[in-house]
Amino acid sequence: MKVIVYSVSHSFERFLGKHLDTAIEFSAQLQAPTADPEQLYLLHISGMELDCYEWLLKHVSGKPIPVGVCSDLPNIREMLECVRLGAKAYCNSHMAAIHYQQMLQMLEHRQSWFPPQMLDETFKLAQQVVKPVSDQKPLDMLTEREKDIALAVGEGKSNRQIADLYEISEPTVKTHLTNIFKKLELKDRVGLVLYLKQA
User: Fold this and answer.
1) Do residues 149 and 87 both lie within one domain?
2) DSSP H or E segment with residue 164
3) pLDDT digits (tens), the chain, 199 positions
4) Which of 45, 152, 162, 172 could form a disulfide bond with 168, CB atoms 3.0-4.6 angstroms apart?
5) Is residue 41 domain-shared with residue 115, that is, in the same domain?
6) Do residues 92 and 7 both lie within one domain?
7) Structural domain of 176
8) Which sign does the torsion angle of CA 37, 42, 45, 51 carry?
């Protein structure tokens, strides 16, 4: 395994030289990747951000080239942009040697590596976008009858038992359940029971 490091920072080069026990070639000039399957690439994005983005877009995007991006001030926006452009790893430039070794091993096996804390933050952001926090209580969008029926399902009652309990027909219970599933975006009564347990 040979690591090509593109960086304009001498202090970063010294840091890697001290901490990595592997063959490293440093260059301040971005060059097209070679076809050598043994080569890994690290881009030190700090000080050459736009050039790095252009290089990723031109040479890496959509290709299985093992590239990691190192940043002096890592942040989610930059990480996501690098990933969008094809980077397989992203890290703090001055992280511990053991983490560099893990990252390089993952890159060598054509797998991804990202700082766990940044992944956690990214997932939290994604959850907020996918499932916005609602001011409504879980069952507020249901009518009173629908709430009664939903809670009865949560207690394990059958359609027949619910019909008897509220003195309505079974087809009416089924209609209410269909409306409940639609409003709460659920598929079936199992989903409803799980939803009620989480609410």
Assistant:
1) no
2) helix 159-166
3) 889 999 999 999 999 999 888 889 999 999 999 888 889 999 999 989 999 999 999 999 999 999 999 999 999 999 999 999 999 999 999 999 999 999 999 999 999 999 988 888 888 877 766 655 455 567 888 999 999 999 999 898 999 999 999 999 999 999 999 999 999 988 888 888 888 887 6
4) 172
5) yes
6) yes
7) 144-198
8) negative
